[in-house]
């Protein structure tokens, strides 16, 4: 069973349109037969089958075949059940589904949006960095889809501290060694790159240099900064009453062990520099004093 499901999942990932095509000799498109079975496997006791079936269905969000559209309620019900799955990879795929849906089919999430946001806030702090990273993509996706800001507004006092916390270097960050050697490593424009998931778009980025420096690895820290950047452009100075006390506290922290917090605060200021430029002026003196000490 696992072998067959693994083969099907690879087809869904590489050439999903093949199963959503009319094939001579068949009375219906293959996906019409496979997708209901995939949805049933969401409840399998086998972790591998849950993971493979969910990843297979996720590959059809962009194509949105009729059978998936007609089964959307069952799909969403399955996602909510799998949201608390013990397997991190399954939880990551649940987050990926919500991110894709908010990007291209936001209307189907509208009745459940509050619950989805609450879930994303929770898993944005997941013990698995991969789950937290996928959850963090939701905030950027929401902003880029130009959805009503008021749906997020009440959650900002909880969301902003999470983003700022996740902007500190993780202990196992591949670029941490270089950052420690440099004392504090400013992010370049290319570090805050656009969101990209090869599995989501059935392709991969064109990489000219496969030995590119490890500091360019897309991670939770940079994703959080990108989300904060977009949120600042949507909400402007509105985010400052929540954000600035945290930033100032981190900047004022003393001791060699707190340098990662200070660096995260500097990264946050850079992220909101454009969206909150007017509101930042009154804070300049408070911000500059700790920065001068750091230099």
From TrEMBL:
Transmembrane segments: none annotated. This is Transportin-1. GO terms for biological process: protein import into nucleus. Residues 180-204 are annotated as: Disordered. Its main location: cytoplasm. It is found in: Cytoplasm. It comes from Sesamum angustifolium. Keywords: Cytoplasm, Protein transport, Repeat, Transport. InterPro entries: ARM-like, ARM-type_fold, Importin_beta. The keyword DNA damage does not apply. GO terms for cellular component: cytoplasm.
